[in-house]
Design a protein that fits this description.
Blueprint: H1 2-15, H2 19-50, H3 58-64
Helix pairs in contact: 1-2
């Protein structure tokens, strides 16, 4: 769906007549894409924070000290 939103947004912008609608569709695509990517980064950071020292082997723990 999002790729189609971007496609039709560019079509509307290039048509001239529906340019404001196309600009809104393109902006909507990039905003939703950025929000989706930012939640993925937050999930990855949360997983990193949850890692415990027990998850590492003894050799890795010694190297980190």
């Amino acid at each position: 769906m999002s790729k189609w939103l971007l496609f039709f947004g560019f079509m509307f912008v290039c048509s001239g007549f529906l340019m404001p609608i196309g600009a809104i569709m393109i902006a909507w695509y990039f905003v939703t894409n950025l929000l989706k990517n930012s939640t993925l980064v937050e999930k990855q950071e949360h997983k990193i924070r949850e890692m415990k020292m027990d998850d590492y082997s003894e050799e890795s723990v010694e190297e980190m000290r």
